[in-house]
Amino acid sequence: CGQCTLVCPVGALVEAPAWHAALEVLDSRQHMAVAMVAPATRIAIGEEFGFKPGTISTGRLINALRALGFKQVFDVNFGADVTIMEESAELLGRLMDGRQLPLLTSCCPAWVNWVEINRPDLLVHLSDTRSPQQILGSLTKRGPFARTLAATAGRPTQAFVVGIMPCTAKKDEALRPGMSGDVDLVLTTRELARMIRARDIAFGALDDDGRFDDPLGESTGAGQIFGASGGVMEALVRTASFIVRGDRTLPLEWHQLRGVDEGIKTTDVPGMGRVAVCNGIAVAQRLLQTEGWRTEYVAIEVMACPGGCLGGGGEPKSQDRDILTKRAQAIYTLDGAAPRRRSHENLSVQALYAEAIGEANGVAAQALLHTAYAPRGSARSLLMRFLDAVDRRDA
Ligand code: SF4
């Protein structure tokens, strides 16, 4: 993918077509096929079928997935809301300890790969919260919803979880040590479009009334803005600043963190500190070369692709800033229209913590919602990969 080679200095971003395998699984009907839809995919997939850039196709996309044979369709935005719950708890813990600051976001696997390969000294700064894709996968496969899914199927069954992502690096993320098995297959937005065409589904003629399945279909505006550069940080600020101050007096929207143009975006969050957003790994490298980055910021978001995931290597190809801007506008339109716009206000997320997880970043959360990193090429990394390969062989 030309776009990826422009922006990604690691070797993970090669699109390996997987949609034939997905169709085989759907046709075999041996599994409960579950699709999980990323925030940026619902914005861009319409472009594959002649819709104008920025057209929101959520309902039509869900109906297409059901027509393909997926039995459950979940919203990765739910996973994003959980990511924010965990990352906020991590950040607040570090602020109290005064250690391992600034916190570096970790939901972009291309960025994580880059740190493991090039700057292992930064690993202590990386949030160990899983990405929304991997959180939703673990909740579906191993978490409290695995039993619910089996009951829905009416027979003992294993879910086959397919992530629909704007991203080629998410394929690599699903295979990381400790992650394997929670997400069975990752398809890019473009691959899904090919599948839809291969099955002669007239995307444009579908009704736009499809709805995600509950409870993993409920989400907030904060989960939706993960698809844009600055969105992860804005979502983090919305929840972490609320927890710090205990009131809703701080603004909901942080426009200083938005925009698809390359560069460093910063703002001061009262009660929390200064935060930064790097639109691209090259931009992060520039920031990390400055003298004061360790003391100036409490949190830094890094996303590898231009404009964030809405410009991801698995989206309909475009380097056109106008198109990226229209996709971003659509994302913020969805956020503005959402009845709840802070992750901690998601009622299904609240129920998840009350009934199954307990405390954010606590013992159960650590087991299900967090991960670990290691320098690439280190003895520990090689051992983790070997053990993971053995696990997968035995599964
Ligand atoms: Fe994937 Fe988004 Fe990172 Fe691009 S910015 S590599 S699409 S997670």
From TrEMBL:
This is [FeFe] hydrogenase, group A. Keywords: 4Fe-4S, Iron, Iron-sulfur, Metal-binding. Belongs to the complex I 75 kDa subunit family. Residues 1-18 form the 4Fe-4S ferredoxin-type domain. The keyword Disulfide bond does not apply. The chain holds residues 199 to 593 of 687 of the full protein. The keyword Iron applies.
